[in-house]
Design a protein that fits this description.
Layout (H helix, E strand, L loop, with lengths): L10 H7 L25 H9 L13 H14 L3 E5 L2 H12 L5 E5 L4 H10 L6 E5 L4 H7 L4 E7 L11 H11 L3 E4 L4 H4 L9 E5 L13 E5 L3 H13 L5 H12 L1 H20 L4 E5 L9 H7 L6 E6 L2 H11 L4 E2 L9 E3 L11 H7 L5 E5 L5 H13 L1
Parallel strand pairs: 2-3, 2-4, 4-5, 5-6, 10-11
Antiparallel strand pairs: 1-7, 6-7, 8-9, 9-12, 11-12
Helix pairs in contact: 1-3, 1-10, 3-10, 4-9, 11-15, 13-15
Length: about 400
């Protein structure tokens, strides 16, 4: 059984208590249901559960109690009616698109996207006759001009990867509602602790649970949150039949990760703020991209629609790729990896890693230069991180 919860609890409380499963032994820490299928008392009961006339789990591709507990908890934290968990963040994006779109449809999105998302949109969806166009995410007028008669989905990351640009979610949602086009927001960088896009008018939320929801870089997973009609029916139907499902073990890891999400995100905020302020004062750094700095062009918007700046700090190093690589290689405390949202600080060179497979023209249009470095600031003492960056930058 799943214990009842109050949807009016804060995200922190929901992260600990919502969707809390209890089996026959009433264990306090949720058990993992590592099973491919479920049994029934009779053939008649099996028929009822398969048809949906009776609640119950059938097959772990689409109904597993541990996965359902994670889905219910994350949906509650985001203020959504339904969540469908997937095998990765990228599979969540693909699942949403293929569940909602068909040949001849158009996606409107921004230039500030994760490199793999651009690959999916340009190289894969295009094969099936789904077109995509890109606009300046910070300019609502550009968004408005980008709508077409066949636009069927608007997709945005905010903050963006890696330049942490923001979109006015409420303003963009208003443009979408006027045209009856759903808005999907990738909330990976902030999580429901720091931003709740559905409250601002979005229709869908995408997560790579691999990042902050896990918080320790252990498992892959994704999620789509929204209403019962579209997520509970259309998206779930795609999951049931096409199978990009989340493993029960990974769901259990994420379920436990949600319990500490608030305290971790608050620490990421504080540490990233300290690192960003220090970087901004360094002569070897041309520019720092961080919504918690007053120098960020959307600092006011960040304070309005977010509960914190997040843990991602990007910055341009003077000297281009050679200087950026020298800095990265010179760090001793930071992990050189493209993953983010970890307890351990990670550092990467986006132009040659996360965005290395998109064209130089697309990188230039997105503002991703050769001197750009991205930090995902972890839970280490920020003074130690600053000392490490100082010796790498000035050594």
């Amino acid at each position: 059984m799943t214990l009842p919860f109050d949807p009016d609890w804060s995200p922190a409380t929901l992260g600990v208590r919502a969707g809390e499963p209890r089996a026959a032994n009433r264990e306090h820490s949720a058990a993992i249901q590592l099973t491919s299928s479920y049994t029934f008392d009779s053939a008649a009961q099996a028929a009822r559960v398969f048809s949906g006339d009776e609640a119950g789990c059938v097959y772990s591709r689409f109904t597993n109690a541990t996965v359902q507990a994670f889905e219910q908890r994350l949906a509650a934290m985001e203020g959504g009616e339904r969540c469908v968990a997937t095998a990765s963040g990228m599979s969540a994006i693909l699942t949403l698109c293929l569940a909602l779109l068909k040949t001849g449809d158009h996606i409107l999105t921004s230039r500030g996207l994760f490199g793999s998302t651009i690959q999916v949109f340009d190289n894969w969806l295009s094969r099936y006759g789904i077109s995509v166009s890109y606009v300046d995410m910070t300019d609502l007028a550009d968004w408005e001009a980008g709508f077409r008669d066949n636009t069927r989905l608007v997709f945005v990351e905010t903050p963006s990867n890696p330049l942490v640009e923001l979109v006015d979610i409420a303003g963009l949602a208003s443009l979408c509602r006027a045209r009856d086009v759903p808005l999907a927001v990738d909330n990976c960088f902030l999580t429901p602790v720091l931003q709740r896009p559905l409250e601002l008018g979005a229709d869908f939320i995408i997560h790579s649970a691999t990042k902050y929801i896990d918080g320790q870089g252990r498992c892959l997973g994704g999620a789509i949150i929204g209403d019962e009609a579209r997520v509970g029916k259309d998206v779930f139907a795609f999951m049931r039949n096409c199978g990009p499902c989340l493993s029960p073990f990974n769901a259990w890891v994420f379920l436990k990760g949600l319990e500490t999400l608030k305290v971790r995100m608050e620490a990421h905020n504080r540490h990233a703020q300290a690192v960003a302020e220090w970087l901004q004062a360094q002569s070897g750094v041309e520019r720092v991209y961080f919504p918690g700095l007053e120098s960020h062009p959307q600092f006011a918007l960040a304070r309005e629609q977010q509960r914190g700046p997040g843990g991602i700090v990007s910055f341009d190093v003077r000297g281009g790729r050679e200087a950026a690589w020298k800095l990265i290689d010179g760090t001793r405390l930071c992990s050189i990896t493209a993953n983010l949202g970890d307890a351990r600080t990670t550092i990467t060179h986006p132009a040659s890693t996360t965005h290395g497979r998109i064209s130089p023209q697309a990188r230039a249009a997105a503002g991703i230069g050769e001197g750009l470095v991205r930090l995902s600031v972890g839970l280490e003492d920020p003074d130690d991180l600053i000392a490490d960056l100082a010796q790498a930058l000035h050594g």
